[in-house]
Amino acid sequence: MTALLGDYTLQNVMLGAALIGVISGVLGSFAVLRRESLLGDTLSHAALPGICLGFIVTGMRDMGSLLAGALFTAVVAALLMVGLTRRTRLKTDAGLAIMLSLGFALGVVLLTWIQNRGGAAQAGLDSFLFGQAAATTRADLLPMALLTVVALSGVVMLWKPLKLMSFDPEFAAVMGLPVRRIERLLTAMIALAVVVGLQMVGVVLMTAMIIAPGAAARQWAGSLLGMVLLAAGFGATAGISGGLISTLGPGLATGPVVVLVATALALVSLLIAPRRGLLPAWWRRRRRRSHTSTEQILQTVYELAREHGDWRYRVEQGAVDAYHGMITEPQLATLADRGLLISTEHMPDEGPHWRLTEKGQGHAAEQAKRRNERRRWRVRA
Question: Phi/psi at 88 (nearest 5 deg)?
């Protein structure tokens, strides 16, 4: 393993993948919170014509010029999308879809034209579609690192405005923040993240790297700072792990493996994260259901009837469900079988209602009396 980690190509791949993971996780967190997942897809596809333009201008496969061209067209596409949605009746998703299709079509046309010109200089230019991590050199890492530093510095300087805009953009506008200008800067920084990942992950797969780490971190974190830091960690983990796995498995492309690892982290987080995971939520619902007895449901109906001064008061089933945070129909049906409740109707457009029977009113009143006596004994003790 030590000899493997000392390999020059693997070191370049792991460093580049870690940079991609960090910048994607940090900026992708804001895209996830703002529900702009399609933005990364649009910018990555719009970067393809910029790569071709960078090659046409310089005449060589220089990483700096290619990334500069990609950043230029990605930002232009983002600004055009904003202009379309604000000056026309198009919705945001429609504007994003238009720019995605236009950018990718233009990129494929330019790429085909360059390849048909002949010559060896353009060889490998189409690797930006799916990435070619093995071709990454130390010289390629320098512009990637510079773009990462620029993007992360922008996040640090705009932390408070970005935090406010992510959760309450209307309040940010009322506070006098230049919301539109900050939105453009955020879009430009997401474009930086996309550009950083083009060499290794490619145009087609870069979308997943923008969204997956942030989506995974969202399931675990309870604050924006925690989410951003955790997303950066998830992104770096996916990048480094994907690089190692692709090296150990002959013939495995690094970019797709990195994306698969990031996606796996997101899926695992969706399943097992304590705060929002599907399995913990299912377990909490099951525990609530098992601990919520029919007697508690009966007492809820009794207390609502007593608040209204009528023990025949018809209680809506939806209100009981909302109070206990679960579906209480099985318990209500059990109480009806015992003769303590009876199903009734209230309004044609409303859901099922229940009211106490005379037996149920007496039983609930007796239970309430015993409960109050136990409370008094505990206070005296």
Answer: -130, -175
Q: Please check whether residue 27 is in contact with residue 15, taking contact to mean a CB–CB distance below 8 angstroms.
A: no
Residues 74-109 as b/e (b if ≥16 CB within 10 A, e otherwise) read: bbbbbebbbebbeeeeeebeebbbbbbebbbebbbe
- Beta partners for 354? 315, 343
Tokens of 359: 């037996």
- Give the pLDDT of residue 344: 85
Concatenating the DSSP letter of every residue in 171-189 gives HHHHTT--HHHHHHHHHHH
Other Cβ atoms within 10 Å of 34 Cβ, number: 16
User: Which pLDDT value is given to residue 122?
Assistant: 55
pTM for the whole structure: 0.70
What residues form DSSP beta bridges with 355? 342
Q: What is the pLDDT of residues 306-354, one digit of tens each?
A: 888 888 888 888 888 888 877 888 888 888 888 888 888 766 667 788 8
Torsion of CA 179, 29, 85, 98, to 10 degrees: 150
Share of the chain above pLDDT 90, in %: 11
335, 295 Cβ separation under 8 angstroms:
no
- Tens digits of residue pLDDT in 52-71: 888 888 877 777 788 888 88
Burial class (CB in 10 A: 0-12, 13-18, 19+), 65: buried
Spell out the domains of the chain, with CATH numbers in brackets: 2-274 (1.10.3470.10), 292-380 (1.10.10.10)
Helix (H, G, I), strand (E, B) or coil at 91: coil
pLDDT at residue 268 in the model? 94
Residue with tokens 């805009």: 165
Contacts of 289 (CB under 8 A, 6+ apart): 326
Instruction: Give residues with Cβ within 8 angstroms of 357, minimum separation 6.
Output: 339, 340, 341, 342
Rounded CA separation 294/289 (Å): 10
